[in-house]
Design goal:
The chain contains 4 helices and 11 strands. By secondary structure, it is an alpha/beta fold. The chain has one domain: NagB/RpiA/CoA transferase-like (Rossmann fold). The strands form 3 sheets. Strands 3-2-1-6-9-10-11 form a 7-stranded mixed sheet. It catalyses: (6S)-5-formyl-5,6,7,8-tetrahydrofolate + ATP = (6R)-5,10-methenyltetrahydrofolate + ADP + phosphate. Belongs to the 5-formyltetrahydrofolate cyclo-ligase family.
Length: 192
Amino acid sequence: MTDLLSPADEKAALRKDVLARRSAMPVTDRIERSLQLVDHADDLPLPGGAMVSGFWPIRDEIDARPLLDRLRQKGHALCLPVMVGPNLIFRRLDRDTELVPAGFGCMEPGPEAEELRPDVLLMPLAGFDSQGNRIGYGRAFYDNAIASLEKTGPVLRIGLAFAIQEVDRVPVEAHDKPLTGILTERGYRAFG
């Protein structure tokens, strides 16, 4: 990247490149690599009984659902993010939670599901680097949610991605919130 690009423009170019790589993965590879996350569930630094927010995969994202089921089996309560205007809130996810369409092929707990405060965010992302910086999808939903959650206490920020989504360097902007760690099909890596 050239130094003439702003951090936002540089991130946009990196996002486009990384998402093209991810999109080019064969579907069977995405499924197998998503399932491999479960093999590393015990490596995650989760406090006992933590409230864990996952995500419903869209497009060609890594699928967190098998990992979430494993974490539920290990005694963690689960929730999913829900868009409410420009903000994310988090609603309880149980086996009997009614899920409703939320756009982009995403499903989310309906309005009758209890709103919760997660201790851990398992977050989708476009790209990440070896310092724990991440490229989201450009709208800062998670950065804003993290800032809001941190007003009431710490929150672990763990990205979930395919290893091919790693880049050499992510430019950092003032609003960016770095990851605590990243989980790929190759395992968990802590930052900081």
